[in-house]
Amino acid sequence: MERHTLDERAPAWDPETEAAWYQWRPRIAPEHQDAAWKLYMDDPDAFLVYLDHYYLDEQPEDIRADLESIFFGSYDTREAWAQEVIEVLGWDAALRQALQAASIPEEAVSWRPEVLLEHAASMGFRFYSRGGRIHVFAE
Fold first, then answer.
1. What's the domain count of the chain?
2. What domain range includes position 106?
3. Looking at the domain assignment, is residue 7 inside a domain?
4. Are 121 and 134 spatial neighbours (Cβ–Cβ below 8 Å)?
5. The whole model's pTM is what?
6. Nearest-angstrom CA–CA distance, 34 and 106
7. How far, in Å, CA of 5 to CA of 106, rounded?
8. What domain of life does the UniProt record list for this protein's source (predicted)?
9. Is the CB of residue 62 less than 8 Å from the CB of residue 111?
10. Interatomic CA distance for residues 14 and 22, integer angstroms
11. Hey, which residues does 138 pair with through a beta bridge?
12. 50-58 long-range contacts, Cβ below 8 Å, gap at least 24?
């Protein structure tokens, strides 16, 4: 069985992403190297955002668990995140149920994702753009 170094197995990402990874690698704690490589391979841009904004604040015991505890997801737009939050929290279904119970036409009231986005920071969400996507972290 042939042995490979991490560098030899690295996929050919865009040059900016690849350069950022190679700048980070020496600063990642030795006990986190294997997990960091796997996280990078899973979603390079989201993982690099994590490294840039959260990793050095404190060295976590388990880098994967730390990332998973604060990473909300990656989206094409901030509005796509807002729509998912509305659906995941059940707000849309609750609104429809309340409207139906009060005999109010559904068209009379609708969600405005831009309002949710205005309050996202106060709710603890942070948005970072990298690699053409929006990566959302919850603090």
1. 1
2. 12-138
3. no
4. no
5. 0.78
6. 51
7. 58
8. Bacteria
9. no
10. 13
11. 125
12. 50/137, 51/24, 52/20, 52/128, 53/126, 53/128, 53/137, 54/137, 55/28, 56/27
Q: Over the range 91-117, which residues count as b (16 or more CB within 10 Å of their CB) and which as e?
A: eeeebeeeeeeeeeeeeeeeeebeebb
> Which uninterrupted H or E stretch holds 45?
helix 44-53
Residue-by-residue DSSP string for 72-121: EEEESSHHHHHHHHHHHTTHHHHHHHHHHHTT--GGG----HHHHHHHTT
CA 61 – CA 75 distance, rounded (Å):
28
Q: Tokens at residue 50, please?
A: 């994590």
Paired residues of 73 in beta bridges: 136
Is residue 2 one of the residues assigned to a domain?
no
Residues in the chain: 139
Instruction: Retrieve residue 81's tokens.
Output: 């995140």
Any domain includes 6 = no
Give per-residue pLDDT as tens, 85-101.
Answer: 888 888 888 888 888 89
